[in-house]
Amino acid sequence: MTYQVNGTTIIDSSRNFQSSAFARTINGQNIIGSGDLRWNRNLTWGAVGTYGVFVTTRGSNYDVSSNATASGSNLYYNGSSNYGYSYPMIRASGWVQSGGVSGTWRHTSYRSKSIYGSDRAAAFWCRIS
Amino acid sequence: MSFQINGTDVMVDGYEDLVNNNAGFKTFGGYTIVKNSSQSNISDSYGYALSQNAVGTYSVALSNSYYTYYSPIVGGNTESGSNLRTPRYSNGLAQPFNAFSTSGSNGFSNTGYSGTWRHMCTRSAYYGRYAQALYIRIS
Fold first, then answer.
1. Could you report the per-residue pLDDT of B86-130, keeping only the tens digit for each?
2. Hey, are the CB atoms on A1 and B5 less than 8 Å from each other?
């Protein structure tokens, strides 16, 4: 025995609703069926929703406030093309290299400003688009 | 009154309309979508695991692999969790947000991480030392 509406099965003989009865998906997956719809964080480098650590050349005197946004092309990491060091987690002085990311990123620290006026403080950024 | 298929309830009167586990829904975060009166609602306000060594969790660490200017670790590269360390200085300090940890007997503490982690900074390398970076566990 099944339950049908105008000849279309809504509930099959095993009492399972058909996916056509619940068309909305979560993360691209139908809510009908087997398995788990656990929220999936994006795990790809540089993708929307991921975090990275960068410095930016934007902001007044490199003073970056909470919720500020920046284009990926304005995000950099502390590194020297001459001496080979690349340590992203500290302030950068004159040596910065392109972060190599695209899109728009949101500054997710409260405030980033080095005590050294011309330096740029490293901070967490989240890609938002 | 209830609605049955082959003699088994699918919908019943009262607080519980659809009978839990009889409707063919997937689970969400391990919890059944169809609810009975004794269950709390599903809250996914965080959306990912909050423990320090879970898939989807970010961590600041350094790799004990030796990366140089000619062979740096770059954004998107992966590292085994067993290779990730946290700095430990001889004076007892441990500063995850710092340039790097010097190598040596007091240089590292094991993180105890497992699985595979993705390097989430553009580029990390230093001659003879180990740059700290942002990682996310991916499996």
1. 877 766 666 667 655 554 445 678 889 999 999 999 999 877 677
2. yes
Q: Measured between alpha carbons, how far is B50 from B66 in angstroms, rounded to an integer?
A: 30
Backbone angles phi, psi at A72, to 5 degrees: -55, -30
Residue with tokens 């009492």: A15
Give A96's Cβ-side CA count (13 Å radius): 25
pTM for the full predicted model: 0.76
Measured distance CA(A65)–CA(B72) in Å, rounded: 31
CB contact residues (below 8 A), chain A span 71-90, against chain B:
77, 79, 83-90
The closest CB to that of B131, out of A2, A52, A86, belongs to: A86
- Asked if the structure places residue A63 within a domain, the reply is yes
Q: In the block, which residue shows the tokens 């909470």?
A: A66
Q: Which of residues 97-126 of A touch B (CB under 8 A)?
A: 97-101, 122, 124
Residues of B in contact with A48 (CB under 8 A): none
A118 in any annotated domain: yes
Contact A45/B56, CB-based, under 8 Å?
A: no
Domain of residue A76 covers 51-127
Query: Could you give the 3-state DSSP secondary structure of residue B128?
Result: coil
Residue B123 touches chain A, beta carbons under 8 Å = yes
Substitution target in B118, B121, B137, B138 with the highest count of A β-carbons within 10 Å is B121
A36 domain-assigned: no
Of A57, A48, A51, A72, residue with least CA distance to A112 = A57
Determine, for residues A87 and B29 on separate chains, whether the beta-carbon distance falls below 8 Å.
no
Tokens of B26: 């997937």
Q: Where are the domains of chain B?
A: 2-32, 58-137
State pLDDT tens for residues B15-46. 557 887 778 888 887 888 887 777 788 776 55
